[in-house]
Every structure is written in structure tokens, then in C-alpha cells.
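Note to self: keep these together.
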Amino acid sequence: MFKRRKPRKITSHIGEFIWPSMGWKRFFRYVMHRTIRLSGNNYSIAAGLASGAAISSTPIFGTHIIQALIITYIIRGNLIASAIGTLWGNPWTFPFLLFMSYETGMYVLDLAGLNSDIPEMAQNITMTDIFTNYMDFIIPMTVGGYICAIILWPLYFAVFYILIRNAKAAKMTIKKRRIKKVAKEITGQDK
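Structure:
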């Protein structure tokens, strides 16, 4: 009943993931409105969003939502908000997040004296190097990704908490104005 007449092709789905047909501005505005309308207090929504955004810096693709849901469940956050928070990891931000994770992992492994055989990112690395020696890249990215997630979670939480609190306060102010306007119209105080 509510299906498309012509089903989308897989290439259309991939294109929609990389660049939404509604545009990025409208997409983020839609996500923002959906997030504000979530049930729960400011803490639970902000904790869910922060968990999703923080876990996006790990290189284990395909498990970000599952990891974010587990973390959010443990800290009593909003599970839907954590799924929305994983949108922070997208094709546009993954290169920066993975580079940050790799560099952090290399630094930590260097401090521990464990990366003597792992190549530096600054050298000329080809795609064949990455595919043939993928463990040399995955291990530092994983270690650094989880360290970055732990470090970035409080920052994300603070930002999301302030944004959610202010957005809900603005929404409540608009609602009160509408109620006052309707009450004045009903009682005839407008005239």
C-alpha cells in the first residue's frame, strides 16, 4: 500500500546514503526535530546522542549502532537517540575520525612500546599495503578509537545536553504563547 511503484535500486540507496536527495541542511533539520521530540529527559537524550557520536570513532563498521545501544542501555540513556547519534559517523566524517583514531592509537602503542613493527601514517602507504597488512592499521585504529570515544564522550554530552535543553525550552515557550493566544481568543480579551 505504501510502497514505491518502482523499487529503488541498490545504487540509489548508496547514493542516498552519501548525499541525501532532500539535501544535508533539510536532513539535519529533520533529524534535529525528531531528536527534540523524543520522550525522555535531557540527560537520557544527551547521553544517547553522545554514546552514538563517540562510538563512531571506532573502526569496527557495522557494529556502531549495537555498541551505542549497549553503552546507552548501561548508562540509562535514550536508545533511539543513540541510534541517531551514530549518524555522526558518515562517509564525510569517517576519514577524519579514523585518522584521529589511528594517530591516537599509534601514540598510545608507542608509549607502551608495542608498535615497533607498525608503519607510520606519514610514509607513502598504498592501498595494497593497507589490504595486505590490514592488522597493522586496524589494531592502532581500534585502540585509538576506543580511547577517543572515552575522551570525546563528555564533550559530546555537554554539547548535546545544552542543545537539547535550549531546544526544549524554546519549544515550551512557543507552546505557552500559543495557549495564551487561544485563551485570549476564547475569553474575548483580544477585543
